[in-house]
Amino acid sequence: MDTLGARAVRSAAGSARDEQRNRRRLLVWTLVLRVGLVGIIVVLLVFFSVAAPGFLSAQNLQNNLRQMAVVGILAIGETFVIITAGIDLSVGSMLGLGGILAALALSAGWSVALVIPIVLAAGVVVGWINGWLIKGGALPPFIVTLGMLGILRGLTQIVGNGQQVAFSAPSLVAFASDKFLGIPNLFWVLLIVGILAGTFLRFTRRGRYIYAVGSNMEGSRRAGINVGATIVTVYVLSGLLAALAGILITARQAQGDPNAGTGYELDAIAAAVLGGASLFGARGTILGTFLGVLLVQIMTNGLNLMNFDPQVARMLEGALLIAFVFADQQRKRLASST
Amino acid sequence: MAECSRRLFLGSGSAVVGAAYGAASIAGCAPKAASSLGRVRLSFIVKTPNSDYWQDCLAGGKSAARQFGIEALQFTGPSSEADITGQISVVEDAIAKRPDVIVLAPTAAQALVPTIEKAYGSGIKIILIDSVANTNAYQTFLATNNYAAGMLAAKTLAAAIQRKTGEAAGQIAYSTFLSGVGSLTLRDRGFRDGVKAFPKLSIVAHRDAGGNQSTIPIGIVSDVLTRFPALVGYFADSLITLQGAVTAFRENNISKSKVSLVGFDSSPLLIEALHKGSVDGIVLQDPYQMGYGGIAYGILAAAGLITPKTIDTGSYVATPENLDTPQMQGLLEPMTRRHLGFARTG
């Protein structure tokens, strides 16, 4: 007959086995996530080098670096916001507005040195309004920035009169297609922005506050962190970088396009999430986001070279996004049960 | 009869259009038509107002509305050329206002059919412009003969390749803005059939920008240039894809003496590219004329006249050589025609 004691011993042994199995699973999922992004990039690089004609040519590598710059810069701004458990849906429209303002000012004969700071300032103002409404008005970031998405795109169409805006600024246009040390200038801009952003986020007190606010807003407040200022900061950075991306896209296309950046907010969010940022806040790195953008770019380019329909890359991007978040959830569930 | 219709239009301020459309007024000109002109209520719907091409078309329509003194209820369209359901809503809203005429550039050949048929069935005169819809429920269709224009593009590309390499031979590729758009489908078919006249030219790649308006049209051309380094020619079937190709050619340092580029539609950037010779030819349509003629035929239809089923508004090739002729200038910058107040140049 079973005694109470024997039953307790058996169940203790069982839960120890369960725990061991959970630990093993946790290790697997952590490895999948750790290695996953870089691993997929490496596998794709090797695969496309063999299967996609011209993939390894210098020109193609440069094209990849150039093409990832604009979305990369947007995604870095988005990463700041996502770490605070916020979201900025207005970056694509801000890119469009920044781009059209730059083109209009240049077509009116303003100098490049004047136009760049003015457009960046516009991005700061928009970001500040977003941040102020979210922190001061206690409005949900999704709603505020969704509203801003519409406002800015409408404004872009109105100031640009719904048309492409031509301008003459040979130095700016040349900058966007030229290279320095064999690397496209646009990528240098992304690299500099990334290093600055990464340093700020990782090594400064204000940068660490961003994680703290995303992890526990109320706790941060009690610990004496100025939560409001932190939130305004991330939206200002996001607006600023979107305006910068707008200037770059206008330089690259050699004209202002009122439709530029439509839908880019989703590409930026997807890249940040692929790179490990969590929409629930407190998680995300600039390096991860950079790798997320790189992954999407390589996949799009390689499949193009292999004569696939460009839409195939979009589908794969979507599938990967879901797979990564699934892996992340598995890891989290196991982490909390052990 | 021409004299008769001429008087009809002179009364509303345009001798040019009276002459141009004289042939259309086969049912004669009842005095009733002339006096009811100002009361024609009309909606004018394009694929999107957000492009130079459609701005030119709207300019033509607005210019006609002003000259004829008619009441245009709206000049509008959805915010994107890829937004099919958006356009359906815009048309349904327009029907609700019970206009006499709807001038419409359908975004998709099939999707707009039920809406068009509903409007037509309720007695609204339908004038289609620019792109086909798979229905007979319309009075007049004014558009570029896109099949012929595509063939013209093929011929232009072959001539440019011939000039640069000494022979119309080698690999060529093309990109389309969005699959399933009536005008582009015909244009691409015309291009492919046109290329068949040059047996040594082979089409090695075809890319679809999926309706993306900013950087994808650049990327797909870059990738084709990488994949096929021996390419001798490229064709882009619309404004956006041509601008993407121009940027891709510049970024990839493609020599304009080796690879030819031919496309469709004008913008300030493309005119400059044509000047510099980085584009070898642009097939121009006449969107201003589609807009202007759309309204003119709408008025004729509203007056009860039988109007022709199809009108070709023409296609023309601008090259670096003929760029400065008055005809090309009028087509390249239709806005100047609006200021001059006449409908057609050259």
Topology:
The complex is a heterodimer of chains A (338) and B (346).
Chain A: H1 4-51, H2 58-83, H3 91-107, H4 112-135, H5 141-159, E1 165-166, H6 170-177, E2 179-180, E3 183-184, H7 185-203, H8 205-215, H9 217-222, H10 227-253, E4 255-256, H11 264-274, H12 286-305, H13 310-337
Chain B: H1 2-10, H2 15-20, H3 31-36, E1 41-45, H4 52-68, E2 71-76, H5 84-96, E3 101-104, H6 113-121, E4 125-129, E5 140-143, H7 146-165, E6 170-176, H8 182-195, E7 201-208, H9 216-227, E8 231-236, H10 239-251, E9 260-264, H11 268-276, E10 281-284, H12 287-302, E11 310-312, E12 316-318, H13 326-332, H14 334-340
Helix pairs in contact in B: 4-12, 7-8, 9-10, 13-14
Unreliable spans of chain A are none
CATH C-level category of chain A: Mainly Alpha
The H-and-E topology of chain B, N to C, reads as HHHEHEHEHEEHEHEHEHEHEHEEHH
Strand content of chain A: under 5%
Number of strands of chain B: 12
Overall tally of domains of chain A: 1
Helix share of residues of chain B? Answer: 40-55%
Shape of chain B: elongated
Total count of strands of chain A: 4
- Give the neighbour order of strands across the main sheet of chain A: 1-4
Derived from helix and strand composition plus strand pairing, the structural class of chain A reads mainly alpha
At the fourth level of CATH, the homologous superfamily of the largest domain in chain B is Response regulator
Radius of gyration of chain A: 23 Å
Structural class of chain B: alpha/beta
Most extensive interface: A-B, 39 and 36 residues
Uncertain segments of chain B are 1-35, 338-346
Distance between the termini of chain B: 25 Å
How are the strands of the biggest sheet of chain B laid out side by side? 2-1-3-4-5-11
* Major β-sheet profile of chain B: 6 strands, parallel
Please give the CATH architecture of the largest domain in chain B: 3-Layer(aba) Sandwich
Task: Describe this structure as you would to a colleague.
The complex is a heterodimer of chains A (338) and B (346). Chain A has 338 residues and is an all-alpha fold. Chain A has 13 helices and four strands. Chain A has one domain: Orthogonal Bundle (ABC transporter involved in vitamin B12 uptake, BtuC), CATH 1.10.3470. In chain A, the strands form two sheets. Chain A has a two-stranded antiparallel sheet. In chain A, β2 and β3 form a beta hairpin. The model of chain A has no long low-confidence stretch (mean pLDDT 89). Chain B folds into two domains: 170 residues, Response regulator (Rossmann fold, 3-Layer(aba) Sandwich), CATH 3.40.50; 139 residues, Rossmann fold, CATH 3.40.50. In chain B, α8 links the parallel β6 and β7. The longest helix of chain B has 20 residues. The two termini of chain B are 25 Å apart. In chain B, the strands form two sheets. Chain B has a six-stranded parallel β-sheet, with helices on both faces. A six-stranded mixed β-sheet of chain B has the order 7-6-8-9-10-12, with helices on both faces. The chains are: A mainly alpha (338), B alpha/beta (346). The interface between A and B is large, with 39 and 36 residues.
